[in-house]
Design a protein that fits this description.
Helices cover 49% and strands 11% of the residues. The protein has five helices and three strands.
Length: 167
Amino acid sequence: TERRDIVATAHHLGRDLTETERQRLDHLHSEKVEAWLDSGQGECFLRDERIAQVVTDALRHFEGHRYDLIAWCVMPNHVHVILRPHAGQDLSAVLHSWKSFAAKEANRILGRQGEFWQPEYYDHLIRDEQDFCNQVRYVLENPDKAKLPDWKWCGPGTGGSTVVPPA
């Protein structure tokens, strides 16, 4: 709620977020949310290998066509992805495509109906090479941090590299 209020206030005032607001948003999302997610809270549908495979297939389906997939990790209750959309591709449309397909398939497999994903997502604009390296490391090391040894639903994409992809 606080994140939504910060963004709405800046939008209402017709201005970009201030540096203080950006830092607060990062703080609100980072440690608290990541600790909650990594503790395995919630339904954890993605722990089911059938569902993890559906999500992985969705991430990789348009890889190289609509976006370059740099790194990804399907955790038991959330997903991390680092990607570079191709020209003319909108991030929200890419995410909608993944979420829509995966939700329908997962609900079919699980014999359930209703919402599968949270409506919001967190995105982070990678600003430099150091941030890029930190984010890739974070995504690829997330299973170890969450105490999920030998977690196979994680890896580099074919668009991975050690340098920041050009904008």
